[in-house]
Design goal:
The protein contains 14 helices and 7 strands. It has about 350 residues and is α/β, with parallel strands linked by helices. Strands 3-2-1-4-5 form a 5-stranded mixed sheet.
Amino acid sequence: MNSVGIDLHRKRSHVAAIGDEGEVLLSRRITNDPETFLQLLSELDGESQIALEATYGWEWLAELLEEADYELHLAHPQRTKAIASARVKTDSVDALTLAHLLRADLLPEAYIAPRELRDLRELLRHRIALTQMRSALKNRIHAILAKHGIQRPMSDLFGKSGREFLAELELREPPRRRLDSLMALICDFDREITQTTREIDGRAKHDDHVPLLCQIRGVGPYTAMLIIAEVGEVERFLTARKLCAWAGLTPTVRSSDGKARLGRISRMGSCALRWALVEAAQKSVLGGGPLRQRFERIAKRRGRNVAKVAVARQILTLCYYGLRDGEIRCLEPGQRASRAMAATS
């Protein structure tokens, strides 16, 4: 079987192929055109397996190759770099390296989610992006008020009474114009976020895992859907700790001469998933229960930020068992809490 490595870039890519004996069959730079890719691969005799690095914009090529019935392998960029670091680094070298690693069965692979799951991820991440852009606009309005020494009389400046206050606020023409422009943009974002949320809620009603995960304090339908979409097939993680490490919620470890030092969390994996879990952790500690107790215990020793991340890791652990076993452990005292708690200790 031929082994093909593709070093993908935005406009052009380098394709290299080697045979069963490791001989180079082709090494060519081509434009990123679907027909050009398929035409080049059709020149190879026999079956081919293809290694593609998970870089920016890899999805379109992966879908093209999957539809053409090629055996596709998605390379993990950081692990591939650690294994195959070269003194001379060019596109042709990178493509050949991917091909050789694939042929030798040494390619560190990343998970390729099904297309439906990738579409769901994009929908959920789109809502996050809209929310963050709306927050940036709101911060600009707060800045306008601060520059003019205006104190807001209510806690929610963008609720009904707060918007009435902003509409009636007397300002000079330039800041008034900027304020009206920002409020108009916020209304546009409100409309788009509402429509996107409605679509997400419609999908959540048909997923049996959503009401299960919503049993965890702090997890709502949107957060549950985001966890389901980002995690994908939970069976690919042998333990809850491996899932937390993949999500970037476990501390880094530096060990030397028998001494180990724990650092900050690795921040690997999906930043959208970490954001959702930290948001859920903030909500969960507002009430009582095991999560609040865990937060207070860790906060006394390590501070509130570390405790917040620990609770986020605990929530993901509970989600792991819920997705894997169909039940949430340690919701109430005595419900087999020991194993779930031990997984994140």
